[in-house]
Amino acid sequence: MKKVGILGGTFNPPHYGHLLIANEVLSELDLDIIWFMPNHEPPHKKKPDSVKDEERLRMLELAITGNTNFSVQPIELKRTGPSYTVDTMKILNENYPEYQFFFIIGADMIEYLPKWHDIDILVNLVQFVGVERPSYNHQTDYPVLYIDVPSIDVSSSMIRDRVKKGKSVRYLLPDSVIDYIEEKQLYGTPSGIKFS
Questions:
Q1: Phi then psi for 86, rounded to 5 degrees?
Q2: Confidence (pLDDT) at 103
Q3: Which residues contact 119 (CB under 8 A, 6 or more apart)?
Q4: What is the mean pLDDT of residues 3-8?
Q5: SS3 state at 105
Q6: By C-alpha distance, which of 79, 157, 81, 92 is closest to 117?
Q7: pLDDT digits (tens, 9 = 90+) for 43-88
Q8: Fewer CB within 10 Å, N- or C-terminus of the chain?
Q9: φ, ψ for residue 2 (rounded to 5)?
Q10: Is the dihedral of CA 41, 47, 50, 55 positive or negative?
């Protein structure tokens, strides 16, 4: 049976924190592959309107280039409406009955699990994998495997803010993604600014 890790998110933009989490879980659980799954419309937060889905998808493809254990799974971008994980996992389990899925979540999402749409159904469709983050409570009544991951205090919102202000984002995300942000002038990039 193929063991597949899934890391969902807006990836707006994808950064080294995402890649580190994915690689650590891949290694610790001896998974075959990690699918990065950008969501179309996250139920719990609003994504900035200025960046199109295809731009987030392209940044993610650039971020994982060269790692054969990483792949992009665009299933949620092909659906309209809120990206409920339970709906996605029903489809994936139906399409890939020979796969075992591990859904990676941060400590902030572990706290939020009781509010997930149809969580009692979802826990039977996928194994949750929790990565700890400082200042979050990771106690839950739901079955979660915990993985210790080195902490990198970086977030997509922080990167967007730095880009808008013309500050350096070097070493926070891959150079290929930085180049793409500059080329497309995403996140309010000041004209002519180079971030590397």
A1: -60, -40
A2: 97
A3: 86, 113, 142
A4: 97
A5: strand
A6: 81
A7: 655 555 579 999 999 999 999 999 999 999 999 998 887 878 999 9
A8: N
A9: -80, 135
A10: negative
Where b means 16+ CB within 10 Å and e means fewer, 73-95 reads: bbbbbebeeebbbbbbbeebeee
Residues 53/80, Cβ–Cβ less than 8 Å:
no
Q: How far apart are the first and last CA of the chain?
A: 42
How buried is 142 (Cβ within 10 angstroms: 0-12 exposed, 13-18 middle, 19+ buried)? middle
Residues whose CB falls within 8 Å of the CB of residue 125, separated by 6 or more in sequence, listed in order: 86, 89, 90, 93, 101
Structure tokens at 138: 């990771």
Q: What is the pLDDT at residue 45?
A: 58
> Which residue shows structure tokens 């993610």?
60
Question: Would you kindly state where each structural domain of the chain is located, as residue ranges?
Answer: 2-152
Structural contact between residues 20 and 151, judged by C-beta atoms closer than 8 angstroms: no
